[in-house]
Amino acid sequence: MTTVKTIEINGAEGGGQILRAALSMSAALGIPFHIRNIRGKREKAGLGRQHLSSVRAAAAICGAEVTGAEMNSTELTFVPGEVQVGSYRFDIGTGGSTALVLQAIVPALICSLKAGEKASVTVTGGTYCPFAPAFEFLKETLEPCLNRMGYPVTFTMPRPAFFQAAGGLVRMEAAGPFEPAPLEFRERGSLKSVSAVILNCHLPPEVAEREKKVLMRDFGDRLGLTEDAVTLDANPAIPEAGNAVLIRTGFESGTSVFSEIGRPRLAAESVAKIAADESAAFLEADVPVCRHLQDQLLVPMALAGGGHFVTTAPSAHTRTCAQVIQAFTGKPVHMDQQKHGWLITVPSV
Question: Is 34 annotated in the active site?
């Protein structure tokens, strides 16, 4: 009987992303891993509730044996079994990011999907969370890229919720087969539109007005944003108070969604400025893949035949995700700076 070598990972340099990438690669390839120093350089080291939700979700889809899956644990061993296609429901238990839990399990689950089979995952938690993709990014930016790689996924948001609450619902549905295809994403084509939505629920209207003022006064020309392209949305479907600014940049190649979520001690003007700064930097970079999409593409690409994309300078998340792929496959992700952006070359497993 052949014993599969356990991959050793040092989690000190990364946050939750290094763990999610390892969970996805491990479940998809059937290779166990051991991670130590989980989030070792963060103010609160170890596993938080949202990280635990990712671990438990990944374990559920492949019947993994797990040790160290507890709050604040800085060490974890994950020994996967065979991925079982089916319908799954996971509850984070807080307003933690539903999108990040899906990131940990969707590639592995869909890779196992055969003709005639269906899979679905429903995650309860937050759909608008600081430092995590908003649902609109998942739907409008990531989903089309996954479809191009042969992942037949559709994301829906039956119930939105801010991070302060725990009642948001996001669902992934897919019908087989998985038909892997390398991704080539080097051009973005011409700009079609730029628009913004200010989500302002159960808060004074002046919050949204202050944000709109920043967008138009400080970024209108830079973004090419017009008054009628800014929408104020009170969204009565969201029961709790919350605020977010979302900016869409639509090119021939697809839409990139940038967002910033209002939170304590962050002024409304800062919420708008952060989202607008990132959008403007992307528009000026003349690359098809924004910095927030970089790391989201790497694992699905590796499992679907690899490929290339052009982006801005690789983020820390992208670099740690690349290290995980190399640890599992022995093949490096190449990152080469060029005259216009960086060319990222992802190997196939």
Answer: no
